[in-house]
Specification:
three-stranded antiparallel sheet; about 160 residues; globular; alpha+beta; binds zinc ion; Sufe protein. Chain: A
Length: about 160
């Protein structure tokens, strides 16, 4: 299989991305969920079904099914790791931080709070791939909106 999705991101980062792509975390439909969203990225053909179990403003469980390029799928896997057992508000802050990183913000790229997702910092140099990396986070924000757990401050 030709992988055209990890251009010149650096070997170490590429390893982390491929590792998540090959062994996605939290893949599958959780036993219980309170919200489910489906999103796709037509420019690349990436797709995700994201399931969240939200209770008392906390992401108690998260799972996904998806297909597409390694950047999109690795990004979703990294995101689910970050979201599990976190307050929704914290998850939204991470989403914002991740978007800053995708806009090339160097501080965001050094933020340890993003854990493995920092491996995707180099994607910011490839505008067409940014959408791939953001797919999962966009799905999360939509899920929060649909779950009615979001902050009104941003709107
Ligand atoms: Zn993609």
């Amino acid at each position: 299989m030709i992988d055209r999705s990890t251009p010149a991101l650096g070997d170490l980062f590429q390893d982390i991305i491929l590792e998540h792509y090959k062994r996605p975390r939290n893949q599958g439909v959780p036993e219980k969920s309170t919200v489910h969203v489906h999103m796709n990225n037509p420019t690349c053909g990436d797709e995700v079904h994201l399931y969240l179990l939200v209770a008392d403003g906390v992401v108690r469980d998260v799972g996904f099914e998806g297909e597409g390029c390694s950047i999109s799928q690795a990004s979703i896997s990294m995101m689910t790791q970050l979201l599990k057992d976190q307050p929704v508000e914290q998850g939204l802050e991470l989403a914002e931080r991740f978007k800053e990183m995708m806009r090339g913000d160097a501080d965001a790229a050094r933020d340890k709070g993003l854990r493995d997702a920092r491996a995707l910092a180099g994607v910011s140099r490839f505008p067409t791939r940014v959408k791939c990396a953001l797919l999962g986070w966009d799905a999360f924000e939509k899920a929060v909106e649909e779950a009615g757990q979001g902050s009104d401050a941003e709107r």
